[in-house]
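User: quick one, fold this
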Amino acid sequence: MGGPGPSLREHAMSVSANDRHASVLAPAEEYLEIGFNYRMTDMQAAVGLVQLNRLHAAVTRRREIVAGYHAALGGVGGLRLAQDPAYGASNFQSFWLEVLPDFPLGREQLLERLARDGISARRGIMAAHRQPAYFGRDTGRADLSVTERLTENTLILPVYHQLTPGEQSRVIRSIRVAGGEGSRG
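Assistant:
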């Protein structure tokens, strides 16, 4: 569906999926109204069932990539990397890191640095209660300070099956240089 106006396909997002994926530094999206995800058809579900046969290989590959990030970035001051939970192992559908106050750049600055280096990273955790669709609604009262901190300070690094060691090294080098380690050579 093209053009302005509401779109069920885009789930009430202010930025279309096409616009997000076409940009190295994606614009921040907002959810202006409550939407639904109706994108999967029965045919797509059938294909998905067949693809489950490849799930183990896909998760194994993602975990290899994440292990590479941990080995190279685990000691960089000012960063906290996503970990497996104590109760199990993550499939790492995405891999986030938190930019802490002692990192030389803030999250937005690091995203801009990565984009200048041709690396597509994304803002991390999104807090639903901060979206315009929920403004003025009684959503209850709870301490969401951790959610808010993660919303403001996390970013998601590239983790996809075809990510090459060279591409991952470029991501790592860019982050290490931004953190004051290494050189641009």
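User: anything notable?
Assistant: Strands lie at 79-81, 95-99, 122-123, 154-157.
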